[in-house]
């Protein structure tokens, strides 16, 4: 069919050469056929033809043809590899053509097939007819291995992109169709399959990964196709046997008929074919699978396991036994997730069929524990598929999982990874909640309502048994895809809550009612929002048209139902703060247009709305719990929108309620402040004042209460506290909150055109409040200090971002903290967040905190630190203040590491250079503290724990730059520059020859050397040389930090060996290596070079400029990249880099023998390329 196959990448050339190529290829094909048939008489003629064929292959435009194929251009297929990879012909016709060619001359066709597998491996070699006929298999494999490009690890099966993905599918399809097409003819000729199996077995044993991978995939797909043939033959044999027995009974006692003889021959033919196919299967399995299922390459192992699962499922009579299942079980322990995943998928296909499960008892007992543990796998997809497999096992295997196993698996509904949680939710629903598998249980009450009631009670019981009382939202989300029908049965849920104990039978307990209300809220939120809760899912998903329609229908259903029912529920549970707080969150998911367009009559709608507002008003009067008050305030905010029809009705009710609250507050204020300038100390009076202030603060958060003049009333409490300091904490905290909200509402009312006269009083109020908060940072009560700090941070963040350019308007209100206030803020963080271990232990002992209190305390600390870090990120506080925070990065990594790391990342996005200076400042301060604590006569102790901690901190800072060295180039270079200057700071003696006191700091900044690009390492090294006037004087152990730092800059360079053997002696970099980058620096930045040295360097530079451009493309890329990036590092070579882009200065540069500017750049690039 195709006479002369090319290499995997040797595809047809351009169209203008098509005629010439076709002629040559046709002649070569004819000559090649003669070679294969052995018709040439002399070895010389054979060699001539072979060389002609190989020359044609080498001269083809491989890269151009490959790009043409992938770009979809019309290219004529020449080889079998190209026909299959392009996939433009039906695979059936391709195989039919090859089979016809095989029938005409099997050697020619088989040679095409052999080269097809060689080319699919990415090999550029070719098996000729002479090699095929004269050499042994091992010799042929050796020659192919020799022609394989060892430097290129790429081959078709691992290439990315849609073209090569399609190629893999076509490759597998070709093998399957080939076997299917040959099953009635040449499959049993004892030549075709023997040759193919021998070839694939030999390639699978190769040391070359491409050969092993490609041949293993081919062999496994070949065995899969042969298994199908075996199955069909087995069915045909049984049919023939049955027909034979029927015919024999019909002709019993008579002579043998022709029909009986024909059936007998047919049966024996099937048996013979089955025997041959069985031999093929054994040869492939033993020759390829047994060697490759444990290959070092995970893709090969995964291929083997995937196919054996297919064999077991396709032909269980032959493969469903422990002799084959053991390989799947063993690979469940594989280190690669891809292999484990293939095992689980294969087992799912087996356990999903109930008739096969009974034959897997031994396997199930042996590997059950491993499968049960796999939902904990670190790979998410493996964990999900393991959960699905366990669900199938629980459905089709009786008593295979214990009660402890079920309890453990049920808890995965609380997993953060949603697919795993949904799989566990399906497991929980089908095993515990659904009645499909539990026919014995009769639903209470009968009908649909009774079934939902029974499911709800089971769900509540499961939740309470798990004792994870804060995770109802995650439980509902896990069950949503499978139990959405009964989870949306809000009518059943509310009926269960409103019915009396006599009507329900067994009444719900208080805990069960609380859980059911939480379930109602979680289901309403899930239906209205249509996306998973926070922490389960990266972002809100985009809903489809169908999902949006369902969401709107659910919102309508929620609104119409709870408009009538919610007032009744609030009335029943009005005294329970937790239940009421949850119920009051439901209105925020209403479709408020229902109040004007709903099916209810207007009278009924108004009646239900009045009932809701009345219940909320009563609840506000009864409760002082902030969760209840905030939920009530938000409900009024949701219902009181100007664009909806019920605005006037709700606004009137809100105004009346706030009037009553303010009236109550004024009465309490009249009794609280006594004439003598003091206040009432009665506990009951203080408690009532506390409740009143909390109610006002909760509503002032969402509603503008400026017209009630609340600011003056609450400010009096704060001023009194600053002057006398005797107010109870219960009064100070809500008063501070109310004052803050009052100023925020006044600030929000200010516009760009507000008159200047009205802004000055507000400005005085803002400054006054800031002073009060600053004063409260030193309050005796910890709660007051923390509250004042949080408010002050938010306050400064708001004021600092007002329009400072508008001097006539809002800009007058802008305010930035001075240095003294910034110091106070950090001192507060240091005392309340980064307290010493002894102080923290003492604090916990005094308060007697348990585990829950410790978590709450940690949450408060994290909130304080986050508030302060926001000031740094948004440039309210100077970025250098972050240096003090960074010192605790390693020490407090488990508690605050994520906050500090995010602060570092955000500041780096704001200003790379300043962020780098902050990092190096942090390390410098720690180093100075360490040096001061050491004995000055002995120098810095490298082995001390404090120095090791500084070095570890530097390493952690280095890791934050990630893998993109180009992106972090400027920052890392600045760290090295600042570090070198600090290390040689304070050098004394003649010409600075004495040991610098901070030289050991070079060990710390060496942690950043691996983040430098190779050109930048040379620039940093040249900058380092500026501080070494006489390198030979830098000897001895005390100079080891300098040597170590130099080694880190010269890593992977030829000079490294001389450094390691110098025992601390400082050698300058060789001229042949540094001639290029020295020209990038100004003459003043390097030691002066003598004329003799310049003369010796000039010929080398001139020779370098004359080097051939064998790697021109890579050098050009490096050159352009280097020129682009070095523009960002002027601080390392002042004047040096700028000179390269200034023609006048280039002309005055002392490199007269090197010619124009572009020649200089080429020499630089070549020098860099050599070093790399």
Automatic annotation (TrEMBL):
A molecular function annotated in GO for this UniProt entry is: chromatin binding
Q: Which residues form the SCD domain?
A: 289-374
Subcellular localization, per the record? Answer: Nucleus; Chromosome; Chromosome, Centromere
Q: What is this protein called?
A: Cohesin subunit SA
Biased-composition ranges for Polar residues? 7-16, 1082-1093
Could you tell me which residues belong to the region Disordered?
1-52, 1069-1117, 1147-1172
Q: Where is the composition biased (Acidic residues)?
A: 1151-1172
Task: Kindly state the subunit structure of this protein.
Answer: Part of the cohesin complex which is composed of a heterodimer between a SMC1 protein (SMC1A or SMC1B) and SMC3, which are attached via their hinge domain, and RAD21 which link them at their heads, and one STAG protein.
Q: Which GO terms describe its cellular component?
A: chromatin; chromosome, centromeric region; cohesin complex; nucleus
Biological process annotations from GO: cell division; chromosome segregation; sister chromatid cohesion
Q: What does this protein do?
A: Component of cohesin complex, a complex required for the cohesion of sister chromatids after DNA replication. The cohesin complex apparently forms a large proteinaceous ring within which sister chromatids can be trapped. At anaphase, the complex is cleaved and dissociates from chromatin, allowing sister chromatids to segregate.
In the record, the note on similarity to other proteins reads: Belongs to the SCC3 family.
Key words, A-Z? Cell cycle, Cell division, Chromosome, Chromosome partition, Nucleus
- Give the InterPro entries listed for this entry: ARM-type_fold, Cohesin_Scc3/SA, HEAT_SCC3-SA, SCD, STAG
The answer to whether keyword Cell division applies is yes
